[in-house]
Amino acid sequence: MNQDVHLAFAPDVTYARLVRERATAHVAPLLGRIALAAAIIGTSVAVGATGRVSIELVTTIGVSWSFALLVQAIAAAAIIVPARARRVTTARAFELWFRAHLPWTVWLLVPAGVFNLTGVHVSETVLFAGALVPLAWTILVLRAFGRQVLGVARVGAMATVHQVIVWGLTLSYIAFAIGGWDRVLEELGL
Amino acid sequence: MTRGRRLSLGVFVAGLMTGSLAPEPARRAPTRVDGYWVLAVDFHVHGFPGDGALAPWLLRDEAARAGLDAFVLSNHNRVSTARAARWLAGDTPGPLVIVGQEVTSRGFHITAAGIERRVDWTRGAAAAIRVIHAQGGAAIANHPARDYWPGWTDEAIALLDGYERAHPSMRTPANAADFAAFSARAVRLKPGIAAIGSSDFHTGGHPGWCRTWVLTRERSVAGVIAAVRDGRTVAVDMNGALYGSPEAIGIVTASGVSAPLPQESGTWQRLSVAAAWLGLLGLALL
């Protein structure tokens, strides 16, 4: 198992170790994490939408939907850049944050695996209800990131800022995609 | 990079390459009968950017694989993606790309097929349909189950060119009953109204899962829109059942065309997906 798995299950201990290991970033691991995330998004969406994979499908979808990674980067920047007690460089903090991908990776890969094995799509209800697991899991990892990497005392406030940015931008895209904010309110039963 | 991750990367790339080299499904040749082209059209498909998964050129490729001759790219309350899709398609061989919008409002959704500019969704169904007609398009009531009935006044229904008679949501018996009830009302208020089959493809299923056989005089966007306005259509649901006027169903049946059933993934495809999936899992965990 790699350090990303340890990070998902023991975030405080693993982040503390990673901070001690190195304070400056290496470009290759950061780019590798971003490329892996794009490949996971590209593959899972391609399998869900077409039942197949190909170089064109996965790269095009991965690039198209990489705005999800941009959302993560913007939210991460909002908590990393102003952190005065940060124990590593800005670039290293980004590298360490992008190692926290495992909860969402599992959430993306499982439906694709189920579809390939059974030919049945996981229903949207199950998919969205299932998203609560990586959502809560990521917040736990985020709090450890705040404590161990950024040296933040009020990790609750930091996590709130991060999540408001992530979900604010995500809902804005959804509003654009499904026909406006009134439709979002309608879907939420408001 | 560890040996395990190198191996995983190799398996992932091998999966993608296998998928890229997998045999393509045979393309359906256009059919002509009684002076009509019998075109397979999906009038309700969503793309990216929007709430569809696939970028326009991938969508067109999927439409071709599904045996479609044309599709309407109808994102919610905007036409930009559809116009980009048409521009990208240009004159290249493949399904016709028809610019559309899913006019999305509380109480009704309408496919505006064959338009150029965005239609205002805030002024009621009848007003929206008049604008669609003024742009030379065709107006189709979308997935008319009970939740979407409140916006449908008799006046608005009488202005429609078509309504979705076949849609994947009909797998739910309650929705199927609602569609049948709306159909009876639509045919009473607008005799000759076109029966439409659409996939409402977003991120699952596939374009053309439900589709429409359109009897056109010419193989063009204008020909498709004219056929809808004249009611020369037959809707096909996911089980292959046909809906429409007896005359149109007779012509389609005589033509011998048939809608392919939902595509089963071939062994080649499943192997390639399994390899890509396992490779990614290895990269994430090892």
Rg of chain A (CA only): 17 Å
Rg from Cα of chain B: 20 Å
- The tally of strands of chain A reads 0
CATH topology of the largest domain in chain B: TIM Barrel
Please explain how this structure is put together:
The complex is a heterodimer of chains A (190) and B (286). Helix content of chain A is 78%, strand content 0%. In chain A, helix 3 (27-50) packs parallel to helix 7, helix 5 (67-80) runs antiparallel to helix 10 and helix 10 crosses helix 11 (181-187). Chain A has one domain. Chain A is globular and about 45 Å long. With 190 residues, chain A is an all-alpha fold. Chain B is of the alpha/beta class and 286 residues long. Chain B has 2 domains: 1-22 and 267-286; 27-265, Alpha-Beta Barrel (TIM Barrel), CATH 3.20.20. Chain B has helices at residues 3-21, 56-65, 80-89, 125-134, 154-159, 173-189, 221-229, 246-255, 267-285, and strands spanning 31-33, 36-45, 70-76, 96-105, 108-113, 138-141, 162-166, 194-197, 211-216, 233-236, 242-244. In chain B, strands 1, 2, 3, 4, 5, 6, 7, 8, 9, 10 and 11 form an 11-stranded mixed sheet that branches. The chains are: A mainly alpha (190), B alpha/beta (286). The A-B interface holds A 1-2, 4-5, 36, 39-40, 43, 45, 47-58, 60-61, 64-65, 101-102, 105, 109, 112-113, 116, 119, 121, 174, 176-180, 182-183, 186 and B 2, 5, 12, 15-17, 19-20, 22, 48-51, 53-55, 57-58, 62, 75-78, 102, 104, 106, 121, 203-206, 263-265, 269-270, 272-274, 276-277, 280-281, 283-286.
Q: What labels describe this entry?
A:
heterodimer; A: 11 helices; B: alpha/beta; TIM Barrel; 2 domains; 9 helices; globular
In short:
The complex is a heterodimer of chains A (190) and B (286). Chain A has 190 residues and is mainly α.
Set out the fold topology.
The complex is a heterodimer of chains A (190) and B (286).
Chain A: H1 3-9, H2 11-21, H3 27-50, H4 55-64, H5 67-80, H6 90-97, H7 102-118, H8 124-130, H9 132-150, H10 155-178, H11 181-187
Helix pairs in contact in A: 1-2, 2-9, 3-4, 3-6, 3-7, 5-6, 5-10, 7-9, 9-10, 10-11
Chain B: H1 3-21, E1 31-33, E2 36-45, H2 56-65, E3 70-76, H3 80-89, E4 96-105, E5 108-113, H4 125-134, E6 138-141, H5 154-159, E7 162-166, H6 173-189, E8 194-197, E9 211-216, H7 221-229, E10 233-236, E11 242-244, H8 246-255, H9 267-285
Parallel strand pairs in B: 2-3, 3-4, 6-7, 7-8
Antiparallel strand pairs in B: 1-2, 2-9, 4-5, 5-6, 9-10, 10-11
Helix pairs in contact in B: 1-9
